[in-house]
Write a structure and sequence with these properties.
By secondary structure, the chain is of the alpha/beta class. Helices cover about 30% and strands about 25% of the residues. The chain contains seven helices and eleven strands. The chain has a nine-stranded mixed sheet with strand order 2-1-3-4-11-10-9-6-7. It has a two-stranded antiparallel sheet with strand order 5-8. α1 packs antiparallel against α5 and α5 packs antiparallel against α6. The chain is globular, with a radius of gyration of 16 Å.
């Protein structure tokens, strides 16, 4: 089969590697079936997205709603805007994790701001009627627990988007654009071990009070999760795997 492409926007090698391993694990992909490209280290250039079964965009430190953007952030955003145009026009499967909400929403005319940010936590996510019938959520319970951690979120969906999952403190948790482009605000790649590792990496990055690290790790391991949240990744891989 053609490999899947994981676009990583994390400058920390340990975080990028952890994200790769987590996505591969829950998507059920081998090292040959999942190729990672760091959009931080290397521009996309003339990359042929048609060489891949589908595209997954990981999280990262950039926010679409940032007021002051570095040259690096502007270049990354331009690269990802190209990706959005390509996957939509060529009907390529796309799944954006957390950062993908900002990327898709901004590219398609929705509103992203700091209204509905959420600290590192486990939250209840509920499927909408449209979500219950979506193939990426097949086998997912109507309500499930997922990990979140984000400064910005979607406050107004693009006109073309379909809301698939929602939450109490952050209404937009998952949506679809067209038939094949998806974004989740929650992290379907995270379990307690992966979240704990990520918290350690980002302890001094300004995302949370460094002194709260031990409490947050305890939260990660005390949160009751099922495998439902991870089905988003395995369903994506199963749906879009192509020869």
């Amino acid at each position: 089969m053609k490999p899947f492409l994981l676009l990583s926007a994390r400058p920390e090698p340990a975080a990028a590697r952890g994200e790769y391993l987590a996505v591969a694990k829950f998507a059920g992909l081998t090292s040959r079936q999942l190729v990672q490209h760091s959009v931080i280290d290397q521009p996309l250039g003339g990359i042929d997205l048609g060489a891949y079964s589908g595209v997954i965009l990981g999280g990262g430190p950039f926010n679409s709603s940032d007021e002051d953007k570095s040259d690096l952030q502007l270049r990354v955003e331009a690269d990802l805007s190209y990706v959005v145009d390509e996957v939509l026009s060529r009907q390529i499967g796309f799944l954006g994790l957390c950062y993908g909400v900002g990327v898709l929403t901004s590219a398609l005319g929705g509103v992203v701001d700091r209204t509905y940010g959420e600290p590192p936590s486990g939250i209840a996510v509920r499927l909408t009627d449209e979500g219950r019938s979506d193939p990426l959520l097949a086998g997912v319970t109507d309500e499930f627990v997922a990990f979140v951690a984000h400064k910005e979120a979607c406050t107004e969906l693009p006109a073309s988007a379909v809301l698939l999952a929602e939450g109490d403190d952050c209404p937009v948790q998952m949506f679809r654009v067209g038939e094949h482009a998806y974004a989740t605000q929650f992290h379907p790649e995270l379990d307690a071990d992966a979240l704990a590792d990520r918290l350690r990496i980002y302890q001094h990055a300004g995302y949370f009070d460094p002194d709260s690290l031990s409490d947050l790790i305890q939260m990660a391991y005390s949160t009751s999760m099922t495998s439902a949240v991870h089905k988003v990744l395995s369903n994506f891989a199963a749906r879009y795997a192509t020869d």
